[in-house]
Amino acid sequence: EVQLVQSGAVVKKPGESLKISCQGIGYSFTNYWIGWVRQMPGKGLEWMGIIYFHDSTTAYNPSFQGQVAISVDKSITTAYVQWSSLKASDSAIYYCASTRHGNHHWDYWGQGTLVTVST
Amino acid sequence: QSALTQPASVSGSPGQSITISCTGSSHDIGRYKFVSWYRHHPGEAPKLLIYDVSNRPSGVSDRFSGSKSGNTASLTISGLQAEDEADYYCTSDSDIGSPYVFGTGTEVTVL
Known about the structure:
The complex is a heterodimer. Chain A is mainly β. In chain A, about 0% of the residues lie in helices and about 50% in strands. Chain A has strands at about 5, 10, 20-25, 30-40, 45-50, 60, 70-75, 80-85, 90-100, 110, 115. Chain A is globular, with a radius of gyration of 14 Å. The model of chain A has no long low-confidence stretch (mean pLDDT about 95). By secondary structure, chain B is mainly beta. Chain B has no helices and nine strands. In chain B, strand 5 and strand 6 (about 70-75) form a beta hairpin. Chain B is globular, with a radius of gyration of 13 Å. The chains are: A mainly beta, B mainly beta. The interface of A and B includes residues 62 and 110 of A.
């Protein structure tokens, strides 16, 4: 069974760094893109950026460019999004999703990672 | 880059049909045939319902159908059921800013 398994909920303080993960299980990610999506409390879904597993090509939503970094580790079929200095406004649920290269729809989704940034 | 525009809420009685619109521009929906729709129960993973405007993945009920005209895409849910209560989002490729853009989301209520 194909799954995207995300890392668990986390509580951080403003200014701290964070890296959350999304591991693909059940198929080879080589020819897939991973996208990251943010959902702030009570708000809709927003694309943050996407990354191609094969060669780590990335494309960011300009709203997130410079605010987060998306990466992959092919050896463990895992994608990441990281922050170097969290803000309270980064509190949200973050989802990863996958699509085969050449497709434009997101077939599989992770269960979401709740990030809470609070003093 | 603005989100695609969806109605905030749509409601219907069991068995009825409802349609959710998703309005963009010539930079996204009007340009590409890559509109997809997702159902999202809060706290769960979104689920793909429609891709490439009107195609259904295997396993998705034929009660869900999609279409597009100009800069507006639509999702129709026929034979509304209680389980259809959820948030629905459209998304499209875009040629400005982010490679993809979501709609603002529509909350569907079954009366």
